[in-house]
């Protein structure tokens, strides 16, 4: 590689040594050392709040470590700003979107470039080239806010590939992507790796880590607690590797939870199958009835047209489909956030079509958005207030317009324990939590206190395996108690595991419904409708 | 009533209208650039007064209106340094700083004027540029085409800045800094540098607007002569949502009401003067009520940016 052989040992390596970073109340990174080699995909794993994003934001120049050092090819460097990181050839996809919503895709791609004039032609042709690689076609002149989250993620990946000439860092890039887009991303990663780039890849899906990664580093509570070298990775089977990773990730907790079988189950290594003990709900009364609902057009994403379905008491109704095909529209129509042009929605026989968000909430309709940062939480308020956001003004938390701090804190603490939210304290600002923990705050808030129908949009994205398990259990328990769930998800495994029936949404309409009877062909049948929906797109 | 439509009268109307429009337009463009980058400049009134006073002083002493304009521009720029250093760099509260700058600008210029010029109140001779060929046309020739040359330069500035905001990397950075500074930062741009430039440019344009008012539009300086124009500029900016063309149009509307007020005072119609002085403000408020609802300005306006904070 290098002209001088004496340089060889250090060439092609970015070494972090003794990286420590503390925030008020937490040590996010505690004496972490690792080497990132060119030509390898380095997986960074760990539960929510383990410190993964903090570590990569140090590499990206967004955070500065309290102590520790970074060396590139053996030369100590300071990465003082994102710009400096880019100069070193480090391209980053951050966990949360860094696109400017009010700018177009093209403008977002050109942001930060030098020179006087905007080079639109060049940006457009590069976008075209990259979207070919990513298997996505994105209108360059559309506003970023009008893209579905999955498409936003693809634009960010394109942008990072553009700047990352030596190291590409991907913080949960697959959380919003469809299986085929993940496959294309995997192919692009292999090609970049072959070209000699280093890649840091963060994911919560162990299968992805095993198939796409060459080596693994596991973080836990800010410390590096395990690693698998490339040699060791090669020598292990998938199940063995997963077991080893899980043991490092969750340590004693896992031992307490049970054996390695449950670990494999956690990792989703076993085939997805519906619960054996599924009860027949068709004989039960209908709780939510949606008849011929068409939404008023809104530029956000595809709006919904003529959607009808009914959900029985205790039923989980899955909605499958490619992200951006009207899922958000459907969820908003149900929650009352989006006006409808025609059709009716009734809850337990009572017409709720004309009711607003607040009144529907009082009747027990809840909505967990997939936009956890903007729509879902108020970043500057405490975890406790965010947990009780929908109960502001209600007894016993508020009395005569006065907040009852003890009651609020007690309830917050209860939810924090129940949902294992990792936060320094109930009074910590919610915006400072890790991505997965913000998601848990949202779920904890919506699933409790008198919910009768919950609409959840991608409820487990960005959650670690244990939390995914927890959320699945919560949703199942909610249904078992007679609650209704509309489960919108892009993950087929999740839908098959939880749903009684699965409706497939495409271009804002439900194009087919599959009874999840535990048969082996359920996935295939759902897939058939999804492809049918797409074939429909082309004509 | 017919005497209202004489050529001399219409010419006077056009002159009054443009004299009211240009200072507001310049200041509003400056405010727009600042607000697009996420900085709310409430000190614009003070910056205009500084520009008006020092523009006047320089024009008087050098006998050049051009140097007067330059003086006003520099005075505005220097005043904006206060905002730049204390807010953009050190993160002090923009509202407090803005009010302080406005108070200080008014105070300083009044004290200096009273000390030096209040006895004599010297005036600056008009310095109009007749557009060759066009200035012979009746009515508009004596008004629109006999404006100070700076009038045309101001229009040119509006076009250039509009173009920069939309077509250049610099303009894109400004807009991103106001919409989502963390994105600009992550993309390798500098929020600090971008906002500093925007504040400085905003100060220059406000100073220029002030100098236009004193040196070219009224030919003299009087204490507190902006009389709330800076605040109107803030409203115009909010209304225009970053579109320079809208800034120009709303400013023109304001200029028109000023001219109408002047005309009403000259006629035999018995309109209370209080009503006339209120007219521009009423019009701006009505426009605000009609169009102000869908404002889509910088969501982080007024908030200092700290990297990595969340
Ligand atoms: N800017 C910040 N201010 C305060 N605390 C922070 C900040 N950034 C991170 N933290 C804290 O540091 C810890 C690690 O967060 P980090 O985002 O690195 O976790 P993560 O491993 O990426 O988790 P996830 O899988 O949920 O994304 C968390 O406890 C979080 O609350
Ligand atoms: Mg993270």
UniProtKB/TrEMBL annotation, chain A:
**What are the GO MF terms of this UniProt record?**
ATP binding; ATP hydrolysis activity
Q: Which domain of life is it from?
A: Bacteria
Q: Matching SMART domains, A to Z? A: AAA
Q: Which UniProt keywords apply?
A: ATP-binding, Nucleotide-binding, Repeat, Transport
As recorded in UniProt, coiled-coil segments are none
Quote any Pfam family the record assigns. Answer: ABC_tran
Originating organism: Lacisediminihabitans profunda
UniProt-listed InterPro entries: AAA+_ATPase, ABC_carbohydrate_import_ATPase, ABC_transporter-like_ATP-bd, ABC_transporter-like_CS, P-loop_NTPase
Tell me the ranges covered by the ABC transporter domain, including all copies.
14-246, 288-532
> Is the Nucleotide-binding keyword given for this protein?
yes
The protein's name in its UniProt record? ABC transporter ATP-binding protein
């Amino acid at each position: 590689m290098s002209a001088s052989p004496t340089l060889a040992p250090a060439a092609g390596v970015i070494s972090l040594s003794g990286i420590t970073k503390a925030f008020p109340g937490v040590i996010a990174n505690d004496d972490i050392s690792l080497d990132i080699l060119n030509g390898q995909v380095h997986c960074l794993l760990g539960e929510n709040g383990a410190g993964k994003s903090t570590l990569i934001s140090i590499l990206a120049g967004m955070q500065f470590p309290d102590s520790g050092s970074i060396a590139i090819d053996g030369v100590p460097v300071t990465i003082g700003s994102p710009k400096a990181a880019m100069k070193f050839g480090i391209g980053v996809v951050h966990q949360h979107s860094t696109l400017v919503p009010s700018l177009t895709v093209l403008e977002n791609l050109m942001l930060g470039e030098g020179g006087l004039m905007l080079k639109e032609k060049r940006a457009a042709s590069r976008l075209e080239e990259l979207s070919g690689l990513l298997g996505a076609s994105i209108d360059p002149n559309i506003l970023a806010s009008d893209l579905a989250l999955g498409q936003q993620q693809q634009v960010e990946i394109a942008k990072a590939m553009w700047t990352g000439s030596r190291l590409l860092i991907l913080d949960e890039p697959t959380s919003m992507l469809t299986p085929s887009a993940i496959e294309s991303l995997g192919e692009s990663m292999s090609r970049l790796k072959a070209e000699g780039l280093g890649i840091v890849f963060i994911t919560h899906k162990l299968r992805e880590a095993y198939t796409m990664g060459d080596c693994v580093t596991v973080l836990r509570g800010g410390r590096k607690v395990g690693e698998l070298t490339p040699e060791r990775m090669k020598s292990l089977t998938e199940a063995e590797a997963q077991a080893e990773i899980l043991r490092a990730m969750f340590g004693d907790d896992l031992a307490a939870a049970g054996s390695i079988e449950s670990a494999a189950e956690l990792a989703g290594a076993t085939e997805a199958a519906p619960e054996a003990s599924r009860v027949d709900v068709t004989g039960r009364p209908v709780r939510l009835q949606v008849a011929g609902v068409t939404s008023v057009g809104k530029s956000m994403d595809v709006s919904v047209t003529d959607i009808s379905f009914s959900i029985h008491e205790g039923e989980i109704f899955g909605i499958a489909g490619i992200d951006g095909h009207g899922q958000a529209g459907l969820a908003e129509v149900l929650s009352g956030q989006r006006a409808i042009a025609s059709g009716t929605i009734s809850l337990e026989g009572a017409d709720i079509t004309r009711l607003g968000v607040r009144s529907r909430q009082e009747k027990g309709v809840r909505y967990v958005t997939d936009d956890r940062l903007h729509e879902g939480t108020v970043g500057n308020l405490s975890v406790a207030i965010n947990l009780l956001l929908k109960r502001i003004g209600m007894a016993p938390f508020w009395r005569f317009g006065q907040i009852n701090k003890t009651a609020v804190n007690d309830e917050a603490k209860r939810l924090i324990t129940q949902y294992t939210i990792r936060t320094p304290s109930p009074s910590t600002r919610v915006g400072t939590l890790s991505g997965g923990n913000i998601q848990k705050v949202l779920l904890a808030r919506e699933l409790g206190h008198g919910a009768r129908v919950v609409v959840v949009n991608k409820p487990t994205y960005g959650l670690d395996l244990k939390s995914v398990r927890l959320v699945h259990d919560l949703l199942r328990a909610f249904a078992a108690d007679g609650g209704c769930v509309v489960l919108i998800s892009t993950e087929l495994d999740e839908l098959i595991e939880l749903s009684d029936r699965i409706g497939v949404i495409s271009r804002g309409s439900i194009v087919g419904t599959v009874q999840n009877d535990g048969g082996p062909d359920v996935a295939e049948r759902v897939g058939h409708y999804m492809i049918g929906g797409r074939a429909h797109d082309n004509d | 009533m017919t005497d209202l439509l004489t050529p001399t009268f219409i010419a006077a109307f056009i002159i009054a209208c443009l004299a009211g429009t240009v200072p507001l337009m310049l200041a509003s463009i400056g405010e727009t650039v600042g607000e697009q980058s996420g900085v709310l400049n409430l000190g614009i009134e003070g910056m205009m007064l500084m520009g008006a006073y020092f523009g006047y002083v320089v024009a008087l002493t050098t006998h050049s209106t051009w140097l007067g304009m330059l003086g006003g521009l520099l005075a505005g720029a220097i005043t904006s340094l206060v905002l730049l250093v204390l807010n953009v760099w050190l993160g002090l509260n923009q509202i407090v700083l803005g009010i302080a700058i406005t108070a200080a600008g008014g105070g300083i210029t009044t004290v200096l004027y009273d000390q030096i010029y209040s006895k004599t109140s010297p005036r600056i001779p008009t310095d109009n540029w007749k557009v060759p060929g066009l200035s012979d046309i009746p009515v508009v020739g004596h008004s629109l085409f006999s404006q100070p040359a700076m009038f045309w330069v101001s229009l040119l500035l509006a076009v250039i800045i509009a173009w920069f905001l939309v077509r250049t990397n610099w303009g894109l950075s400004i807009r991103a800094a106001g919409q989502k500074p963390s994105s600009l930062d992550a993309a390798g741009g500098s929020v600090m540098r971008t906002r500093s430039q925007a504040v400085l440019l905003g100060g220059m344009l406000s100073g220029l607007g002030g100098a236009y008012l004193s040196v070219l539009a009224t030919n003299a300086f009087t204490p507190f002569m902006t009389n709330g124009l800076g605040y109107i500029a803030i409203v115009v900016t909010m209304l225009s949502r970053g579109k320079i063309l809208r800034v120009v149009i709303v400013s023109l509307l304001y200029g028109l009401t000023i001219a109408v007020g002047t005309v009403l005072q000259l006629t035999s119609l018995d309109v209370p003067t209080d009503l006339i002085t209120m007219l521009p403000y009423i019009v701006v408020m009505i426009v605000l009520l009609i169009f102000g609802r869908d404002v889509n300005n910088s969501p982080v306006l007024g908030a200092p940016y700290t990297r990595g904070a969340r």
